[in-house]
UniProtKB/TrEMBL annotation:
Pfam families: PTA_PTB. Keywords: Acyltransferase, Transferase. It comes from Desulfitobacterium hafniense (Desulfitobacterium frappieri). One of its GO terms (molecular function) is phosphate acetyltransferase activity. PANTHER family: PHOSPHATE ACETYLTRANSFERASE. This is Phosphate butyryltransferase. It comes from the Bacteria.
Length: 303
């Protein structure tokens, strides 16, 4: 769970460029990450506000680089370029719209796009499951096609492996557990399952279609006579058919069940911490924690 990830020492700490850092919850999360040795902040934003908030919160800015750029779009470009040039290991959204930071990420000169599909990965701590559950894509790709879904799986698998799941189990969700030609997501699930079996999607086990209950609950999978599947009831990753489904599951888990959560975007040059401005400081911190693990894992894989 998140406690296990935090207990594992991360060396070295990852440098995090924070775009539009003039926000109290963001500063609280970032400096908690610094205190625990997870990340070293580079703050880009309105210097006056950042210093005032830091003083009010008792935060020492002495050894944290601070770049004054009150224009949030320029701050996003500046922070993104720090990552592009190798001066930071990950990027974080501060007090600005998601569209503005994604515009910076996709900028041809200062952005982080590498040609693959970018996707949002929500990470949920479900106490009854005794494991982290990844939901994708709940925030970027609206109605992904087969190629995009395969990329979304690959992105989520990398994140899951960075968080300690060596061979993640991926459940392709739909409304039921059998292929129905009238429900396109069941056809997609079957194709993705076969792609995994043929080695086109690696380092994981993919199966589907599944309804949500029998993807995560072994008893319900058994009750519905779903046998011979290593994924049924044991999924680590939920591949949702569209953004509405993913967003609803994610918001239900965090708003109704109050599960702890983190979120990031993967598929660019570096992980992007992309919290909602309404997220709690804890959720922002957990997002930094997961993104830092992913950045370190990716760097190690490229050596």
């Amino acid at each position: 769970m998140f406690a296990r990830i935090l207990s594992e020492v991360l060396t070295p700490s990852q440098r995090i460029a924070v775009a539009a850092a003039h926000d109290k919850p963001v500063l609280e999360a970032v400096f908690k990450a610094k205190e625990l040795g997870v990340a070293l902040p580079i703050l880009v934003g309105d210097e006056g506000k950042i210093r005032r908030y830091a003083e009010e919160m008792g935060i020492d800015l002495a050894d944290s680089p601070l770049v004054h750029e009150p224009n949030v779009r320029k701050a996003a470009l500046y922070a993104s370029n720090l990552v592009r040039e190798g001066q930071a290991d990950l990027l974080m959204k501060g007090m600005l719209q998601t569209a503005e930071i994604l515009r910076a990420v996709l900028d041809k000169e200062k952005g982080l796009r590498e040609g693959s599909t970018l996707s949002h990965i929500a990470i949920i701590e479900v106490p009854s499951l005794n494991r982290l559950l990844l939901i994708t894509d709940a925030g970027m790709n609206i109605a992904p096609d087969i190629k995009q879904k395969a990329d979304i799986i690959r992105n989520a698998v990398t994140v899951a492996r960075a968080l300690g799941v060596e061979q993640p189990k991926v459940a392709a969700l739909s409304a039921l557990e059998v292929v129905n030609p009238d429900i396109p997501s069941t056809l997609d699930a079957a194709i993705l399952t076969q792609m995994n079996r043929r080695g086109q999607i690696k380092d994981c086990l993919v199966d589907g279609p599944f309804a949500l209950d029998n993807a995560v609950n072994a008893e319900r999978a058994e009750h519905k006579a779903i046998r011979g599947s290593e994924v049924a009831g044991q999924a680590d990753i939920l591949l949702v058919p569209n953004i509405e489904t993913g967003n609803a599951i994610y918001k239900a888990a965090t708003c109704l069940a109050s599960f702890r959560s983190a979120g990031l975007v993967f598929g660019a040059k570096a992980p992007i911490v992309l919290p909602s401005r309404a997220d709690t400081p804890e959720s922002k911190f957990l997002s930094i924690l997961c993104a830092a693990r992913v950045a370190a894992f990716k760097a190690g894989s490229n050596e």
